[in-house]
Amino acid sequence: MYNGGQAGLTYWSPNVNILRDPRWGRSQETPGEDPILSGKYAANYVKGLQGNGEGNRLKVAACCKHYTAYDLDNWNGVDRYHYNAKVSQQDLEETYNVPFKSCVLEGNVASVMCSYNQVNGIPTCANPNILKDIIRGQWNLNGYIVSDCDSVGVLYDSQHYTKTPEEAAAITIKAGLDLDCGPFLKDHTEVAVNRSLVSENDINTALTNTITVQMRLGLFDGEPSSQPFGNLGPSDVCSPGHQQLALDAAHQGIVLLKNHGRTLPLSTKRHKTIVVIGPNSNVTDTMIGNYAGVPCGYTTPLQGIGRYAKTIHQPGCNDVSCYDNEHLGAAVAAAEHGDATVLVIGLDQSIEAESRDRVDILLPGRQQELISRVAAASKGPTILVLMSGGPVDISFAKRNPRIGAILWVGYPGQAGGAAIADVLFGSKNPGGKLPMTWYPQKYLAKVPMTIMDLRPNAKLGYPGRTYRFYKGPVVYPFGYGLSYTKFTHKVVEAPTQVPIPIVNTQSLTSLKNLSKNVEVTHTNCNSLSFGVHIEVQNNGLMDGTHTLLVFSSPPIGRMVAQKQLVGFQKVHLGANSRQRVTVNIDVCKHLTFVDKFGNRKIPMGQHTLHIGAIHHTFSCKILLANLH
After folding, report:
1. Per-residue pLDDT averaged across 582-591, rounded?
2. Four-point Cα dihedral 578, 584, 585, 588, nearest 10
3. Which residues are catalytic?
4. Of the four, 180, 218, 328, 412, which is 20 to 30 A from 420 by CA?
5. Structural domain of residue 64, as residue ranges?
């Protein structure tokens, strides 16, 4: 697209913010609530965009955003331009900053974007601690730091953080900001220099960081045709291989939440006429969510199902808001005439989007009524297909015996309708897993979006957030997802003891606490990893893809996460076949916790690995030989 004069080479993506609250309108952009998962996603996303060119060469410059603790847009009178996120050093180090650290250290990202909000009273784009000291200093960013669009103006105009615009320009540049998305620095930096609020050397540093990325992109190397990717053009975008990739991605993203009595897959012999109902049953733009490119073409759910069977279509509602029952009667009547009924419902950008957080996590308007009445009237089995970015409390459908199966498809992209139909009729076996906890609606009453704490607080009645700390009831848990076949696991080989060698003893003030915890700075993390060898077996009659999730629980009695994802691997298995999989565990990254001061530590004692229903215990013990 760049070679064709239709795009640049800098993409402010990916969004790697932790999904802390289910109401957040931008949840659709993120990889979910888990920091390890988000970090791995971030690094691989960046590598995919930037390529593996020689030396510092970039194919495309990626940008990890929005740094940091940004996950509130507009809720209950509080917006992102005025919000001060009060975050403990513990939560920043243990959760919110983890994906960004992975972006820089593992992905070697070309840029990081600071966010609109304040963190502990300081705008992120004006905070030298998190910009200059951490991103540039500790993580050694090889690239530039950019503001979210107009956020320098926001900290002056909306947050009134400085008295003059020149001070705002100066404070952000000195904090480590290199580039402004917007006109603010262009308009006010020269005066700031003339008033000695910021030096020309500071300006030169910012320019160097920015222009160096342009050089790495080859923008000064002549015509695109003479460069490594100069042979590509717009016609390469919609190639058959890329369109197949869109379909494969949609297949992989579908999560089977319910399949009572093996309602799915449907049969083309027994289910020849399918009634397709719902406000998302024949949509196009809805399927690509936000921040998408131009699709090569769409296959709607109705069109996809139509490739397998005769269809009868009724929208049920005019749109996802579903304010009235104008089309309800026709939908109920149609359900009486099919061999199966597929309801495609959910949300779209009018309900959840940037600058639009939800007030609840229920289906909008009269969608629940539509679903319940259609299910009651349906002649054949009823299948619910939910299209949304964030989680929805569909407890009523989970409990309803008339609803045989539920699929969550996210916003599945241009080929979403084809992928949905392939899964419904068994051409593809679903293997997706939920990247976030699906809470009940009543959970929201106890968790204002403005509370950033992840750990529960019993005195305040605060239940905590994410699967790592919340212990209450859920609609569906993090990592949940069914298959048309049955997978089992067996640990073949794993350690029973993991020795923790002590180094850097000169910095130790006391050895008495080493029996409880060891700071990662006191051991050699480069040599602290081990493999867990797991045999995965497909015991069913259908080929399938299974995502193996490995969790770890710390020693009992520690004030840390109840469990933590430490590894995952996707494996495709034929029917009645098995495969040995190795998941590598990095002790300093995966088996640690962060104390209230922000220090990462390895808890000594018995840890437990959870792989499905299998538990494997092992102990972390100090290697005493290195204490002398």
Report:
1. 94
2. -170
3. 148
4. 328
5. 27-226
